[in-house]
Amino acid sequence: MGTIISLLVLSFLIFFHELGHFMAARFFGVHVEVFSIGFGKKIYTKTLGKTQYALSMIPLGGYVQMKGQDDMDPTKVSNDQDSYNTKKPWQRIIILLAGPFANFVLAFFLYIAIGNIGVAKFAPIIGQVSKESPALMSGIEPKDKILSINNIEIKSWDDLSKKIRKSKGKLFFKIKRGDKIIKIIVTPKIHKYKNMFGETKEKKMVGISPKGDTIIVKYGLMQSIPFALEETKNATTMIVQSLKKLVEGVVPAKDLGGIVSIVQVTAKASAIGIVALFGLTALISVNLGVLNLLPIPALDGGHIMFNLYEMITKRAPSERVLYYLTLGGWVFLLSLMAFTIFNDIYRIAGGQ
């Protein structure tokens, strides 16, 4: 059941991405010949109007086939008025951006749904206080519950961490200790820590850790909007940083996962619950949006690069250059896909 849900999630994300391209193309009067979920041989087709809608055999992507635009043969053009290549470069760029943008929009709405369903977070209750820390020196004790900082209500440990991290000078804590309400002034200090990539970084801390109690935080409709924006921004930042660290060699290539890993993780998330599934789906959607914006020929980002070149130079790229760059892009993407699948199989087989 988990595998079926995983494939449905992937198909939905691909559909939403291609729907973005489709809607933008139709807005600018471009005829869409085929709207396919999946690649390869078509196993189901239905023609509505002049567009053929299809489900294809390989569920590892999808495509919108616009008149006058063919990734497999970039030299195939059409001079008809409803053709993609007769549109102005800025119009083509909007059509190309619409796919990734749709993924970011989908993630945003998924996070809104999560915010309204309720998010499990650590309660702002102190578990441990580090030795010689600002918190210990100020009199904070284990089991203290943080009610507010600088008169701003603290609902979860995330709120607490964010307030400390962004602090400027002293912080005025309002704490519940047993039946008493007390006030304590704490001055954060900069400490070193290891980030998710194993790098040593610095940030402001007071020397406390959570007790481990969890609470469900629900956001109202209006509150869920800034929550969703923040989560979408955080997911985007994390993925961009991960790509940067991969290029720098901080993240080893052996850690790359492919379609098998995505199916496995999505299946596990679906077993945990709807919030976990929505959260992972939103993260994958943002990932899909970011990756498609990379300036790699055959991806949306590569096509945007070609159109920017045309806007700047006032002439289209050479068909020969366009053909070989796109061919090289496909070779790179297929090689990367094969490599990540190998990594997945190697891990499943017990490799390190």
What does this 3D model show about the protein?
With 352 residues, the chain is of the alpha+beta class. It folds into 2 domains: 2-118 and 254-348, no CATH class; 120-217, Pdz3 Domain, CATH 2.30.42. It is 49% helix and 23% strand. It is built from 9 helices and 12 strands. It has helices spanning 2-27, 89-117, 134-138, 157-165, 221-248, 259-272, 274-292, 300-313, 319-348; strands at 32-48, 51-66, 119-122, 126-129, 145-149, 152-153, 171-177, 180-186, 189-194, 200-205, 208-210, 214-217. A hairpin with a 5-residue loop joins β9 (189-194) and β10 (200-205). The longest helix is centred in the C-terminal third of the chain and has 30 residues, at 319-348. The two termini are 28 Å apart.
Strand order of the largest sheet: 6-5-7-8
Unreliable residue runs:
none
The helix-strand sequence is HEEHEEHEEHEEEEEEHHHHH
Radius of gyration: 25 Å
Question: How many β-strands, per DSSP?
Answer: 12
Helix content: 40-55%
Instruction: Indicate how many domains the architecture comprises.
Output: 2
How is the biggest beta sheet arranged?
4 strands, antiparallel
Average of per-residue pLDDT values: 84
Which structural class do the helices and strands define?
alpha+beta
Question: Which percent band covers the strand fraction?
Answer: 15-25%
CA(first)-CA(last) distance: 28 Å
Shape: elongated
Number of helices: 9
